[in-house]
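Sanity check

After download, print the first record. It should look like this:
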Amino acid sequence: MDAQGRGRADNIDPADQWVLNPNTGEYELRLTPSAPQSGVPRPRRGSGAPAGARARTAPGRDRPAPGTTGVPGPRRRRTEPPEPVPGRRRGRTKPKKSKAKKILLWTGGSMAFVLIAVSAAGYAYLKHLEGNVNTTDIGNSGKNGFSKDDAFNILIIGTDKRTGKGNEGYGDKGSVGHADTNILLHVSKDRTNATAMSIPRDLIVNVPNCKGTKRSDGTYDTIKGTENVRFNTSLGQAGRNPGCTMDTVKAVTGITVDHFMMADFNAVKTLTSAVGGVDVCLAKDVNDPDSHLKLSRGKHTIEGEQALAFVRTRHSFGNQGDLDRIKVQQQFLGSLMRKMSSSNTLTSPTKLFKLAEAATKALTVDTGIGKVSTLKDMALELKKVPTKNITFTTVPVLDNPADGVVHKTVIVNPTTGPEVFDAIKNDVSFTAVKQKEKKEKAAVAARLKGSRSAASEIRVDIYNGGAESGSAQETLNWLQNSEGVTKSSQLGNADATLSKTTLEYSPDQADQARKLADLMGLSASAMKPGKSEKNAQGLPAIVLTLGKDFKGAGVSMSTATKAPDVDKSTADKTVCAS
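Expected structure tokens:
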């Protein structure tokens, strides 16, 4: 009877007869003392466990099932002399494993178990963190997900809602939570830079109609917009949610906001405590009875209630208005960024766990980024940006002439405001990223290099691909009457909507395309060499499709490669609040 048969005869699972010998580090066949040994067949080397043991391996897999890993063939009993191996000298035997190697084998198994346990715990902890995050459905005011390959815009909103332990005594206890602090964070596509643009709460704007509560049929209530009101009323007032604030930002700046993150008073307190405090600097002594901030001149590390008082105070710095408080808040956020990315934080598991807990509990986000894994991806993308290239600036404003009072409310500066907005829309850095500027200039030079045709020789078909209604006809009139492009035609709407204006042309029409690009102020990125089409006379014509970025006939469409000169600071520098 063979070993498999004997195992069955003795009511023993044959697979359980293979055990690890701790002295040799090998698996051996364990038989009962009464069982005869001479009948044990010798399997071929490397054939694995006997049939009974191999049967426990999961079908269709290359590795054994748990509990049967790597069972080798049985060894001969030590009483039997080993057969000589062909090609080897008689008498040479396989060396025994050292004690250190045996310990390593056992330790390795333990470590594998620990890794599995940690992985399971890590997954459970991520799920726990996900339960901390509050989400708000904002309909189509934002994107459904997050892309690692694109530039992105996040609206960071700090509300003045007084909920939470210890916050009842701050100002208006019944506040519905207005948009008190607002920062539009733009992260460039190549992750070389980011711009954090503060939007004053007292900026006079028109709040558009926006979506309210979602109905059971999937549609949304509409919240009526209001004109000539403070920006902070875009949230909370009349039941407006953060999607309404995002829509207001787009109406004011033309910048599409992808996502939002909203935090209340508790966020400042818990986040600053989680990182062990934030370093700030004051150019003078401060004793503000309204915010309860009392600090001496010089450097301090603040957290919790003291940190909240620092960002809330508006009567201790500058002209005691909101614009100077914004500057102090920007200095504070720059310091918080430096602290969060410092080695002291990143190498401390305790701080990282505290930070993860505090951040997820403090934030309310849109459903498009409501998963912790998505928030993690977003944070990792932002981490790629050097702090020296994170620029803080503020919407350029003027005192509102309708007030008759200085620093009460403000309006967008009609000259410098659009320049700042266009720079952000076109992914232009506010810091000196020289390598990027060189590439852009080289691309423009290469694309537009060459001779130009006369305006009268240009044959062009004009389509409206997303510009304001009537733009194609307006452009046709301007080209024919003002610029001498008489061989031009207006052919209505394009087949698709484009975000950017394009100019398509065949190689033999490059001279015409370059001349038209000069006339319209088109950038190199608008030039699309490839093929043209035949016009009404059957002659080849270049194709001009006006996109959503079209600004009007005769208005240059060149994308700025250098940001406008505005008041700004960067996250890597410490500035003393004054």
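If your output differs, re-run the checksum step. Summary of this record's structure: The mean pLDDT is 78.
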